[in-house]
Specification:
Length: about 290
């Protein structure tokens, strides 16, 4: 993995983490559905506004465009709603920690449908990385002993949808290698899905406030940049290399909560997980 590719994937993870960290602040002022009806369209509008200079519309590929749009039906739309619901009930750290199983779905599907394969050195790096993420997740789950199994299913389902979207979009990028087009079309479809849900479904949670709108505009901007960088990385490399690096967003969520928000709940298990994660990423970076 080149340094440039690593930086793109790691920055994507950072923006995913920022979106998760900001979510509790927005959810104190707005319900999950109302927040999603602001954040997802915000990303879509941002990408559409930039599309005249970022998207290569001249080389439009219908089959790839349909794949990008299909991905947008569940990611980011479904993932956003599930993450907001999980964030409200479990908090940002546990939501992110359970979400670190995303690459398991992404890599398995990429190997099954895209024919990707792993070298033994990659397998070793992935094992160390996943071990670190698993330790962090176990530490977060232990800190929420009252969380029932169905609540943990919210971020787990979000991880499955996010992981499934990556090989799907990778297949579309093979025909139209334009990450900006992929992100723009996916977000336009997702915005339509979320707005339709907002109009049809009952609203639960706090009422709309100006401060809440501001938080979800910021969340939408962060998530939009994260998705764009993820698809940019996928346009340059295999899912099996990109997905594990992007999956370090729980580590970044943990760091932001601790360093910026001053949440002092670190444990020896959590620190051990961080060390293993860093070692795993270093191995992948060296390949």
């Amino acid at each position: 993995m080149t340094v440039g590719l690593f930086l793109i994937a790691a920055t994507s993870a950072l923006f995913f983490a920022l979106g998760i960290v900001m979510a509790p602040f927005g959810l104190r002022r707005l319900g999950a559905l109302s927040g999603a009806a602001i954040s997802v369209p915000t990303s879509a509008v941002l990408l559409l506004a930039l599309s005249p200079v970022t998207v290569d519309w001249v080389h439009w590929e219908t089959s790839s465009a349909m794949i990008f749009a299909a991905g947008g039906l569940f990611y980011p739309a479904g993932v956003t709603l599930l993450n907001f619901a999980s964030n409200r009930r479990l908090g940002s750290n546990l939501t992110a920690a359970v979400g670190n199983v995303t690459p398991l779905f992404a890599i398995a599907l990429a190997m099954l449908f895209l024919g990707e394969s792993l070298r033994w050195a990659q397998v070793g790096g992935l094992v160390v990385l996943f071990a670190g993420l698993a330790v962090i997740a176990a530490d977060r789950v232990q800190s929420h002993p009252g969380a029932s199994l169905w609540l943990l299913g919210l971020p787990l389902l979000a991880a499955a949808l996010r992981g499934g979207a990556q090989p799907l979009i990778k297949a579309g990028l093979a025909g139209w290698p334009d990450a900006f087009a992929a992100a723009t079309l996916a977000y336009c479809v997702s915005a339509s899905v979320v707005l339709l849900a907002f109009l049809v479904l009952p609203k639960v949670g706090p009422t709309r406030t100006l401060a809440g709108v501001g938080w979800f505009v910021a969340i939408g901007t962060s998530n939009g940049l994260a998705l764009l960088l993820l698809y940019l990385a996928l346009s340059q490399s295999a899912v099996s290399l990109v997905a594990p690096v992007v999956a370090t967003f729980p580590l970044m969520t943990y760091a932001i909560n601790r360093l910026v928000l001053r949440q002092r709940d670190a444990s020896l298990r959590g620190i051990a997980g961080i060390v293993l994660t860093v070692v795993g990423v270093a191995v992948l970076l060296a390949l």
